[in-house]
Task: inverse folding
């Protein structure tokens, strides 16, 4: 695999070329980026031409796989458990996820590096968790994908705290590095002029000077405006549902005969007020908002295992395997956003 270093506005860009399986289900964690090429085959006929239009991928409503998983009961005998089945995003091992101390974005390229369609995604670990889905969708659709994520730094341009050592009960620390990261990352995006910017949301942050979801949403609007420009769309990907608070892989291992103990009622997993605030601010800025909760939950329940995969790798981040499984939904959401007006 060959690696190249690029400079964009004084920022280091890590890029590499290599081979990845075309299955869209499994990829190595050592590949930073891959160039995909497509071969176009034209067949002529002297009698007729047939055009086939594929139906849109489902992105909302009741999913058959989720409904089946919500029946709960025991895990199948061949259900994969362990670290490999609940792995984290490859961005961490690839050095493509900025640390809490960083103020400059680490810019990594994936997908079809020669594509005319450029997509940037940014946010905290809840953006990084979607990398697998985004990378598969980018390869499948021949898009160029650029990552720009940072630990504990939300998409909303608003002062916040971080937890010491990223522990749930760690000491709260002021986080000026996140404020500076926003400025530099937004400037880099404006210079790139991408076709689409994806803001993956986690709104469960305690903000400096309080303000709650109203202040967070206003900060998200500020971020959208900061990257908006002619030809640039924005997709706001809503937050993933909250778990019951347990480490889900450990819970499934302990309760193989009754995984209901690892599920969470949707009423406790989704926050309708936050959904409304975030979707409203997206609409105000001509951005597309997609709520992914239906990808995880029925109307009543959010199971910890779906379609033979562990949904979460810990108590709140989705596993890379499940992210890749939802690549079709991510790809369809991107197509919807690309067809919308430019963000403002």
Result:
């Amino acid at each position: 695999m060959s690696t190249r270093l690029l400079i964009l506005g004084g920022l280091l860009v890590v890029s590499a070329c290599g081979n990845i399986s075309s299955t869209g289900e499994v990829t190595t964690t050592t590949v930073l980026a891959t160039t995909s090429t497509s071969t176009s085959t034209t067949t002529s006929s002297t009698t007729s031409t047939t055009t086939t239009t594929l139906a849109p991928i489902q992105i909302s409503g009741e999913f058959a796989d989720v409904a089946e998983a919500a029946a709960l009961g025991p895990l199948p005998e061949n259900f994969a458990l362990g670290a490999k089945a609940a792995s984290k995003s490859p961005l961490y091992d690839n050095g493509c996820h900025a640390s809490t101390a960083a103020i400059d974005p680490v810019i990594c390229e994936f997908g079809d590096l020669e594509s005319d369609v450029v997509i940037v995604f940014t946010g905290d670990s809840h953006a990084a968790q979607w990398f697998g889905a985004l990378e598969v969708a980018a390869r499948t659709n021949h898009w160029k994908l650029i990552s720009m994520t940072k630990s504990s730094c939300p998409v909303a341009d608003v002062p916040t705290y971080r937890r010491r050592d990223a522990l749930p009960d760690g000491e709260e620390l002021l986080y000026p590095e996140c404020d500076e990261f926003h400025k530099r990352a937004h400037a880099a995006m404006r210079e790139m002029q991408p076709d689409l910017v994806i803001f993956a949301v986690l709104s469960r942050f305690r903000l400096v000077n309080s303000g709650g979801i109203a202040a967070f949403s206003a900060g998200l609007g500020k971020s959208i405006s900061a990257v908006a420009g002619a030809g640039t769309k924005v997709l706001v990907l809503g937050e993933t549902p909250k778990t019951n608070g347990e480490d889900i892989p450990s819970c499934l291992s302990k309760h193989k005969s009754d995984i209901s103990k690892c599920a969470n009622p949707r009423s406790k997993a989704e926050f309708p007020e936050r959904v409304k605030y975030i979707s409203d601010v997206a609409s105000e800025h001509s951005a597309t908002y997609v709520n992914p909760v239906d990808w995880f939950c029925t109307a009543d329940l959010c199971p910890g295992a779906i379609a033979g995969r562990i949904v979460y790798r810990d108590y709140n981040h989705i596993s890379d395997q499940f992210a890749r499984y939802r690549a079709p939904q991510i790809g369809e959401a991107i197509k919807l956003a690309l067809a919308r007006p430019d963000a403002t």
In short: The radius of gyration is 20 Å. DSSP finds eleven helices and 15 strands in the chain. The first helix runs from residue 64 to 69. Residues 1-13, 15-52 have pLDDT under 50 and may be disordered.
